[in-house]
Amino acid sequence: MRRLLLVLIALLAVMSCGHNDNRLAARYLDMAAKCFEDGDYVTAKLYIDSVRTEYPNAFEVRKKGIRLLQKVEIAEADRTIAYQDSALNVLREKFEKVRDSFVFQKDEQYQDLGLFTVSSQDIEKNIGRNYLRGQVDEKGRLTIVSTYCGSSYIHHRSIRISPSSDVDGGYVDTPASDDFYEFKDLGTFYEKCNFTGSTADAIAGYIALHQEENLTVTISGDRSFSYRMQASDSKALANIHSLYLLLSSIDEAKTLRDEAERRKKFVEMNIAKSDSAAVAGR
Fold first, then answer.
1. pTM exceeds 0.85
2. Contact 160, 193 (CB under 8 A)
3. Residues 114 and 226 in one domain
4. Are both 118 and 212 inside the same structural domain?
5. To 10 degrees, the CA torsion angle through 147, 152, 156, 160?
6. What are residue 127's phi and psi, to 5 degrees?
7. CA-to-CA distance for 233 and 236, rounded, in angstroms?
8. pLDDT category of residue 275 using cuts at 50, 70 and 90
9. CB 201 within 8 A of CB 170
């Protein structure tokens, strides 16, 4: 009899604890719902997560929490889509205003993406000259091409850009590039070395910052060679850098928007599956 009484007391305690868990979990869920209505999606998700971690046995409340979380995720996606759409409108308007300042080239047969350059840096206009050339593709990927021609190969793989005077303007060095090619034509040796990614950004960004100054380019390989950068090249690379920042921002906004759209569709698909399973189970 005593043992039976103890078992009954234990069962009552468990039931009481379970009811208490449901009540406290429901309170968290109510706060999550309030945050959701206020547009505070981060805090809403924190409250929903608290239901899961602190009250794992409050099954019915947790089910409601999952559905609320799905609503939050859809609302977050909608907010991101709206924000990125607005940003894209502004960025594309800026691009339309400047695009005619650049030369666009694309071989439809061989190129998936076209390239923007500056007219003054057309290859045909600069044969036989040592210079840095900038180009950016439609997705905002920047490339700086270091071109050298001389009486012998240097096999240059890196460059330094620095002020030509003693002014303390710092300098920018590049790591060695493994994207290069060399050839000889009518006794002249030609080298082209490509820099991309953060290295190209550093080069063009430095030039943009110091475009009003006289700059020296030092190319290094088996030996070093230096030359004065022409003012037209400084201006061209500064403009290319601005276009790179604009196009890369457009591409980033499109990527964020597409990710939000995919996330929304995924959540909506899960909701539809859950609803179908609920109907089938009745």
1. no
2. no
3. yes
4. yes
5. -70
6. -65, 135
7. 5
8. confident
9. no
